[in-house]
Structure formats: structure tokens, C-alpha cells
């Protein structure tokens, strides 16, 4: 038996793969959570500004979803329904149609894919290729779309790409909005390359983008740029796929991240907060004309996670049946913005990134960002970095975080930054 | 608004993607389920011999798992934990170590991947490629490993492959055991191709197989063949990956499908019934030497589906802490075998397939198999086909199905077959 | 300046790439050649049983081709004509039509590709993919089709494949005729895989084969097998491509290697001896229905090697305007066969390979084969090995070799074998 | 027999593939050529400003090469030598070393590849991938590197790419120098993408470029840009490959197109005019450290086109043993420049492209350029277009063209342009 199989080391060291990650910087063993707070086995509580990477937009264990789920389970409601019709799926679809799709004039169909964001992206890429008969998909610098082979080919991150063990094909990489600040408009760049008969960029099946690149460093595309890209997609016979897995479900201040931009994507990928409760669920919204997969042509066992349908329905009905919640988001976004502006002012050249409740600060150095987050963790706040060098401190608080808790968390962040910048954290450690 | 957006058609017709599938042959709207039975909104109950495609091996809403899950939710246990340490994950790992891995002398590490089987397969393929620095993976005729791009390249099914919209690379296809009955041993065939310096089969990163091909028609590999393949993998510097997603978790009569075969795979992929309750969960077991992914190199949001850890732990403790359950499986397998032998006797050239509680009958014709399943559905039994032509009627009853229910279900199947073969079903329909 | 740039080493050591090969075993510097004999700078002469790897089927410096070429050059005939019309190209096409295509009822068009066999194979693969809209091409164990990326993907040799530096896609490898002597017919094997809807072999654009695998060890397909493969191609909507680069131009006893087999390939690739004089020239014969490339869609500078057209025309007119030459080939093949049978009798388990003037002996060991060839070189015969382990001694004498010279060369080979098998060569070396 | 097999249509219509191209716009059947003039069967003579697409830089049938070649053939010199040592290859290598490599301080080795430019490019790409263990190769908009699968993946032209019938992988496309006139420096763009850890551009094996894009529209890179690219290659561990197939052999005014730029490529590909006589020959120059192919790892039958070695040696000795020829080129380039400036002045927005004896005029419209070339053909001048829309009239006169002939040809071009712009050609046609 290998040495670390000895029971003197923790079960995680003994038996969990080295691929585990978040636990390395936040080594507590967590046990319970409510709203925006999470508590470990020993009873220590943290404010949670990570929110399951935006998969807990409505906080932990929302009481209404919780009650509905317990009732469902107690009544022997289905847990798993393959892609059979179930009453819970019907109820979710009806809520999603009434409160989300119809008010936004979207006639999209809902395809339930395997319950991971990557699976939704894979399905979206396959649809676009099948619809157009083309292979090439345009994706952008710093885009993140998952790590299964198809999705990974569209993901920019070199560390993840290196894990493929094979070459990643079928995607042309283009610079995202504002990649060269003050210089060439990157949509014009793409336009020129696509128009050039010898440009070497094959006719695209799709253009795939996030309006705010969550993992890529909170780069927020301007509405003008997104509209330009949408026009290029249309002019070139390509489908526009918006990956709203992280930026959707209210994270940017509206249900979809793109809804104030004047574009209607042909395909939208959703996951993370769509179940509302942190349960695995993913889906692809697709315009009826492009809903061309045959039965089970893209399939998977867990497409009918019925527990998730229950909580997802409650989430839609509770938060999106009128505009009250959306108005709150706007106020909270301002609170975050103001605090982050203070943080940015503390670090030379630092600047704000993102929009809505998906904001952060680029502190230029990945080491500095990590140190600040580590200090915040010590002080009772869970918060993470993003960006190509992990140089962006990213606030992903639950959208439902009470204003007081939000301010409290932001204050911990500012204190942590101050500690690091003044060296207090190191003195404390001695 | 397109015509079928009108509210006079069902919400599924209006809004669910055409990719939906099982619901087409079983159009009821299901609501509740207990054990081996499932009930629709109208109160009609079916015996379930599909069991979520083997993702409900312990039946629907097992009372112990149900109680534990409700307790967990009631106590505000985490729903979603990214890959943080949680008490529930620790408890699952400890149970899995004590009752599964240690008794079988397996020092594998557990990698929690995105909660779909395809994601586990993608991770396994990436690991093998990274470990060996090679690209080529050997997979077999009629293998099914999922439909994301990497997994799909290993899947044999032409209908699914056609959905890729691009060419599927990096896999060499070889004939499964007994592909040419009475002729060349296909392991010797593979051996010859691999040994031949001009054979054109690049040195493999892995050999990937299911010991029983669930989707491929219940083709069961012999222990000798699996051992031969394992030796070829070792001799050629390739990893042996056994995809136990459908055949594992007791389905073949032992926890792993391969455990009586004298082989220890380098990597095992698991999903479907690993949560025990139908909740999305997948994992990769990997020998410590090959556990080489860096932190989050293969990542995903839903790797910490804490609800699933709760039920998965109960499943392991309840069914696998001693050999009582395994002994039951053997008896039930005999019951299934006997009934299916009767069925096979009714159809010329029909023959039995599979092993354990993963048996079926190849009735030669896909149309006939479908007709029999449709008739069974009318009579109160949910059962499905598999195989390249959907010609195999497949019994995937929950492993926990009481003997009486099992016999009752099998009798319905026999009756349905009789109806179809005598034309009674058509007379009834007139 | 690196050490070996010093002028004390030969210009080849100093300046020619390490990729050079034949010169390593035959280090003489050759200067002149006539018929079946080749002479070095020092005046030593060898009988040439390599014949430019079958690119000198009519021997060196055939007097009629030589005269025509000198006249053409003297008259300022074009050397290079891109793909313009030239009088010499017209004359070649007319000769090829009259003496080759029409008598064999072939309505194929002639596409002049870049003047390498690999380029012809690349063009053929591209045509098949464009015609069918499919990607997959079936190629065989031990096939050799060239080393540019597309052709290399169809080549079986692992050493060459390893030089790609990238994975080689789009080809499914199948066992050649008689790959498992006495067991499964490999055409039936391919048939089963193609018919199986879950066999994992995508619908093929083409089946690509050599009737005798020159580099692969002189494996000769039976007419029955080739016909079966041709039927499979037709039944599966794939084009049949016969790569006749090495086996064509009379090498197997008829102009095309396949002409007595009862098949008409959709595409034939030709190179090597098509110019008759060793000049670079390659072409693709394609049925009119599949001649679908647009102007210059597959292009290249040297498609109009006018010198080659001159000699190629003479070759066709001189050797193929009646059947006298073909009758000679049959007699010579028997002479070769008899001598090789004697050689085979000298080595345990050795056996004859190939057919026509493309015969050899598998002496089981690559080392033994090399030693025999090296000894033959010392004794005045140039001859090479082939096969996956270089275990086949291959006789590729010019088809025009006079009977006396042929016997003389074969006797040197037998003597060389005897020397090696009795150790005489080593004694001599001491 | 298909209709056009009838002998009433020309042999080219009957039997040559539809892929033929140049002959469509210049339908004469050419027979002889001397220097810069080419004559058809009927005795009509044209000035040749196409020069075999720059493969006849020293004109047709140079008397010294012609004499040497006739002498070689008359003496039964080898025509074809595989990659054996031959006296003619040694003589070529010695001349190339003395007059080309040593004076330019280049210690490169010479690899003789299959005699097409595409084959040299394939070999270069394979070397870079093998040396670095990476797959990705950076190539540029409007680059042209050949149409075999590997080379085609690096070629920008969409028409050629469309002929692949499969997706073309392993290449990242970047904008060439000055792609966005007056905006972002494209080398800085590439630098940013390569430096970005999440930029999605995998670490490159090589950067591959032409200093003047012959097929792509005579886009000439500035020395500063090429130096910047060379530095990026070095900084990123990638090889710099300069494809000098069209721009080399004196075409840009020096033997190599890059020799005044202050860069030393790791690999140079050469073909077209390297034989000096239009005979097929190609080679790769590679720094000794990267000369890592094993014997025959990249092979091919026609690597030893001995006739080409004869003429190539004469070309080197005659034109490059001192600087007289190079000085002439400079004068002729000025003559071409002045005439093309006149042409550009005739067309609104037209502008000059290229450098050395590789200049042209972008007349904005492909139709206009074609019409002018067609009119020039009528008037006795062969000249072609290039560029993504065929909008660039390209002068590729033999470098040896006498000044009078050069002026005469340029005058025909100006007359032709005038005819077209004034409509005279159409009046004439009525």
C-alpha cells in the first residue's frame, strides 16, 4: 500500500485525486450553508463571495426551494427521469416560458443536455456544425467554455488546454472586445479576416462568446461590439452562440446577460445557477429552425434531474415573475462597484472589471490577488481570482445577499487588501 | 410566433427540443416512483425495467437514502460544494474506501468529474493521453461512451457519431470479443495489429472497453478476452480503462463488472448508479501513479454535488458492507435468465445476451423488439431495446426489485411478446 | 562553424541532411547508368535490382527515350509548362489514350498532379472526400502511400508515421488480404464492420489499396479479395482507389496491376515509372463523373514537366503498343520465381512473396535480409529489402533486363545468401 | 463512351482533368521557348511574364544549362538516383555551399525532399513539430504554401482549402504585415496573443511565412516586421520557417528574399527556380541542430532528380558566383517599378505591390485585372493575376530578361490596360 494510503493522512489526501483544487486554498471541511454564509465542521462561518462559481446566485438553501424539494422527495417524486415527461419538467418549462422566454419575445426551444456547462457547450457546437455543414467555430481570447474535448477546443486557457493530451481542432481564435485598448476594433478585425477570400479563416459554423468572460478576467464586451459580432454571424451564415453559463441567471443584472444589447442569439447555453439550488442542470436554448437534432442524437443519462427541475421552477417563479428582484440587483451592483473602486484605488494601476454582480478588480499581479484572497479567507470571506494570470479579484456574491452582508463582505475584502499591502498579514503570521 | 408555440399543444411540444427521446415511446407524464414502480399523473403504475438506464440500480426513492437526503437538506447541508472539502464528501470517500476499494485491494484515487458519464470518459481519455504522451485510444465496435466530442470519438454508434458535425479523431476501432463467432479471436487480431511495425495502428495511450456493452446490445466479453486485452495494454505501454458506467454498481452481479476477471484496470469510469438515487454524479478511479492532473486541470462546476454524496454513501453502506446483497443478485439473475430463455424460445434464431442483471434477448429484428416493448408498455412494463439495430430487448430492472415484482414484470414481457407474435396486439388496437 | 562543416569530410556529410538513406548502405558515388547497370565514379559497375524503387522499369537511359529527350531539349522544347497546353502533353495523352486507356475500356480522365506519388495520393484522397462529402478513408495494414500529411495518414509504417509530429486522422486501418492466414477473410471482416450501424467505422469516402504492397513486404492481394473490396466500395457509396504507383507500369506483368482482376477502380494513382526515364511525374486517373475539381483547385508548379511527357510518350509507344513486351514479362517473372524459390529453400521458414516482376523472399529476419543485401552489394548487385521488419528481400529489376543479366543478378543474390548463411562473408571480412 | 470522349474534341477536353487551369485563359498549345519568349505550335510568340510562376527565373532553355544537360544525358549520366550519392548531387552541393551558403554564413544542411514546393513545406512543418514536440504552426493571411493536406492547412486561400474535403488543423492564422494599414502592428498583435496564458493560441512549433506573398497578392513584409516575427519565434521556442519557394532564387533582388533583413531562418523551403531550368526540384535548408529526421523518415522516390542537379549547379555557378547578376536585378526592378507606377496611375485607387522583380499593381477589381491580362495575351504577353480576389496584376518576368524585352513587355501591358480602360478591346472584338 502506497505510503499516503495510510489512515494517518486525511481521506482527501488518501483518496481524492490531485485534480482537486479549491480545497487547497480553503482547506476547511464545510458542512452547512444558508443564504450567503457557509459554515465548516468546527462551526466557523464565512461570507461566501464565490457562490459555487455563480451556481448559487440565489444563495445556499433558499427556504422556498428547500421546502419544495423536501416536499417533492417526501412524496416520492421522481429523482431521475431520463428524458421522460414528468410533471416537474412540465412545471419548470411552463414557468420558464411564461416568465423568461415569452416576455423577452424568445421562441427558443429548450434542450436539456447532460447537467454540466461543458455538455451544453458541446451540444451547442454540434448543433451549429450540423445546421451549417461547417466545422469551424470562432471563439475568443480568454473565453472559457469547459474542458471536455469539444468545449476545450473553444476554451482559451493554456493550462486547461494542456490537459487535453491531444491537439484541439475546429476553432479559430479571435481577440475579444477591447483586446488592444485604443487600437483596432476587434470586431472589424474579425470582419476583415472573414471577408478575405484568402484570409485562411474557414467559413464559420458559429461565433461563440460570453458577454462577460467570467473565468477570463471579467472582460465585459460592449453592446456595440456584441451587435457587430451578431451581424457578422448573420452575414457569414454562422449561428451566434452566447454562452451564458456564468454571466446569465441574473448575474449581470438581467436574467440573460445579453438582453439589453439588442441581439437575439441563435443558441444560448445555460448551467450553473439555472437550478437555483446548486444542483446539476444544464440546458441549451435553440431557435426552432435550428432544433434539428433527432431523438437522442445528443443524449445522456442525467438530462432529467427532476430535483433540479423542482428548484429551478421555484427560482424562476420567486425571482423573475416581476421586476422587483432585478431592481435590487442594480442597487447591489452599485454597492459592489463603489467598494471595488476603493480597492482599486489602493493598488497602482489597478482597475475595475466586469459589470452587474460580476465585478472585480484587476490588481495587475496574480500573486497579490492570491494573497489578498487568502487573507480574506482568514478573516471570514470566501472569494476567488480569475484572469489569465489570476490577477483579477472577482466578487461573485449571491444575488440575494442582504445589503448588510454584502457591505460586511466587501469590508473584509478591503481590510484584507490593506493588510496585504501594509504587510500586516505577514506580521500577524509571525 | 411559430404555430406550435400556441398553448393548445403541450408544453413539451411547444418548448422541449426535438432531441427528447424516451418520452416518444412512453408518452405518459410521470410523477412519482417507489422501488421498482413508477406512476404517472393519472395514477397509472408501471413496473420499471429501465431503471433510468441503470442509474437507479437500488430502485426509486430508497427509503434510507431518502431519509438521509431529507435530513441533510433540512439541516441546511451543502447542496453544492465545488471541489471544496465537505463532511459529506469525506463520509462518502471513507465508505467507498472501506467497503469497495480496500476489500478489492484497489489503491485507486477518486477523481470527481463533471456529473455525467461522458465527462468521466473524457477525463479518463485525457489522463491516458497525458500519462503516455500518445494520442491514439483503442475502442471497440458497439462501444458506447457518451456523446461529447472526445467520448463520441470512442463511441461506435453511427447515429450518435453523425451528430458530431465534424470528424472524430484519435481513436482506432477494433472488433469486440466474439465479433466473428467461431473465427479469429479478436484479441489476437488486436495483438497482431499492435505488434506489426507497419500495421498503421499508432502506439495506444489506452485501451477502453466495457465488459458488457449496455447500449451496444449486451455483448458480454469473456474473462479470458478481457485478460488478454489487459495484457496487451500492459505490453504496449497503454493504460487499461474499463468503462463501468452502465455495467458497474452491481449490475453484473458484483460491484465492479470486472472484479471476477483477474484484471485491475488502471482507470475505471463510473456514473449512473454511483449516487444510488439517480442524482447526477460521476467519477474516475485512477491508480495513484497516473493521478497526474494538476489542480483543476480537468475541472467543472458540479463536481461537488453534495446531495449525491449523501445518497451514494448510504448506498455503499447499505448494500455493499457485506455480501448479502451480492448473493441476492445471483438468484435474481437466474430468474431473469430463465424467463428470457422462454422468450428466446418464442422467436426463431433469438438468443440470450449479457450477464448478471444486465441480460436480454436478441430477437434479430429491431422492429419486433420495439413492438414487444411497446406492447409491454401498454401492459404496465417499462422496458427498452439496445443494440446496433435496436434488436435486443434489455432487462435493466432495479437490483433491489423484489422477486415477485421481478417475476411479474418478466411475465408481462412474455405476454407482450406472445401478443405481438400472435398478432393479438393489433387485433386489440382495432 | 560546426565540426562536420570542415571540408575534410565529404560534401554529403557536411551538407546533406541526415534524412538521406539509401546512400548509407550503398556508399558509392554513382555517375552513369545504362539499361540494368549502374556505374560509380571509380568505374565499378553493379547490376541494379532496385531500379529507382521501380521508377526505372524500362532501365536507365533507354536509347529511344534518350534520343527523343535530347532532340526535344536541342530544339528548345519547353522544359516546364505549368498546366498550359503543350504539344508534348498532347502527344503523351494521345499515346496514353490509344495504347492504355481505350484498349482497357477505361474512360478515365488524367489529372497531372505535383510530380510525386504522394501528391497523386493526396489528390485522390481529396477527390474522394469532395465527391462523397465524407472524410473517412479505409486503408490497410502495411500500405505505403507517401509521407505528406494526408498520404501519411494512409501509410501504415510506424517509423514514417512517427515523423509526422502530429496525429494522423481521417483514415480507418483494416487488415490486408490474408493478414490472418487460414482464419477470417479480411474482406468479410471489413464488410461486417461497415454494415454494423454501431461498428464505429464512419461511412467511407474511399477504400485505398495497393494490389501488391511494395514497401509493405510484397503482400499480393488475391483477385477475389480485390473484387470483394471493390464491391464493398460500391455498396457503401465509396470510391475505389488503387494506388498503382509501385505495382503499375508493367511491374506486375500487365500495365496496371489490377487489369486481370475484373475490377475498374474509380481512381488510379500513378507515378514512379510513368515517365519511363526516372523523371518526376505523377498522375491520377479519375472516372469522368468524379473529375470534379475546379480549375487549379488542386494545383502545383511542376504539373507540366514537359521532359517527362516526352519520355513517357516514348515509353508507352515503345512498350505498350502491342503485347510483345507483356509476354516477355511473363517469362522473366518465371525466371525470378525459380531463383527465389532456390533462395527460399536455403532459409528455414522463408517463403516467396509478390507476383510478376515484383517478387521477393521473406527470410523472417530483417537482420538476415540486410546482411544478404549488403553482401550482394559487395558482389556487384544493388538490391533492397521491404516489409514491416525489412525482412523481405525484394527483386525490382528493370522490366527490360536482358535474360542473361537477370540470371546473373539472381546468381549474385544466391551467392550472397550462401555467403551469409555459411559465414563466408565474415571470414572474408577478417 | 461519354460524349466528350469523342475524338472530335481536343485531347485536352477528352482526357485532361477539369483541374487544368492556366490553359483556360491561354488556350494556345505551346511548343518551344527560349529566354523570355515562348512560342506555340503555330509559330506565334509571346513575351513570358509568368515564367512558370517564377520557376523559370533564368528564362527558358538557358544555353549553358541546356548544354550541360544534353552532355549529361548523352553520357548516360543518371536520370534518377533515389537518394544515393551521385557525382552531380555532390557538384550541386559544392556549388551551393561555396556560392550561396558560405558567403551568407549559413551552416544549414540541405534536405532534398520530393520535388514539389508543397513537399518541402510538409517536410519543414514535420521537422518543426518533431523538434519542438508541439503541433501548432502560425501561418498568415494570404499565405500560400501548397495544397497537400499539411501544406494546405497553412495556405490561406479559401478556394484551395475548400478542395480538402476535410477540416484542416494544426495551424493558427494570423494577420500578415500591414493587414490593417495604419492600425495595430500585426506583429504586436501576435506577440500579445502568444504571451496571453489564456489567449487560446497553443505554443507554436513554428512560425511560417513568405517575405513577399506571391500568390497572396504580392504583399511584401517590412524588414522590421520580419525581425519582430523572428524574435517572437525565438522567444516562444518556435522555429522560424521562411518559405522562399516563389520569392527566393533572386526573385526579390537577392538570392534569398530575406538576406538583407537581418534574420536567419531556422528552416528555408525552396523549389520553383532552384533547378534553374524548370525541372522539378525542391529542398529544405535546415540548421544542423534541427536536422533530426532519421534516414528516410521523410522520403520519396524523386528526391534524386539528377537532371535537375545538373542544371541547378550551372545556375548557381553562372549567376551567383559574383555580384554582377544581382546588380542587374536592381536596375530591372526599377524599370518594372516605373512602368507599373504608370499603370497604377491609370486606375483610380490602384497601387503598387511587391518588391524586386516580384512587383505588381493592385487594380482593386479582379475582373479588371483579368481583362487586362486577357488583352495582354492577345497582344503577345503572358501575364497573370494574384491576390485574394485576383485583383493584382503580377509581373514575374525571368530575371534574365533583356532590358529591351522587359520594356517591350511592360509596354504591351500598359497598352492592354489602356485598351481595357478605354473599351478599345471590346470594340475590337465586335
TrEMBL record, chains A, B, C, D:
Its EC number is 2.6.1.76. Pathway: Amine and polyamine biosynthesis; ectoine biosynthesis; L-ectoine from L-aspartate 4-semialdehyde: step 1/3. It is an enzyme of class 2 (transferase). One of its GO terms (molecular function) is diaminobutyrate-pyruvate transaminase activity. GO terms for biological process: ectoine biosynthetic process. It comes from the Bacteria. Belongs to the class-III pyridoxal-phosphate-dependent aminotransferase family. This is Diaminobutyrate--2-oxoglutarate transaminase. It comes from Marivita geojedonensis.
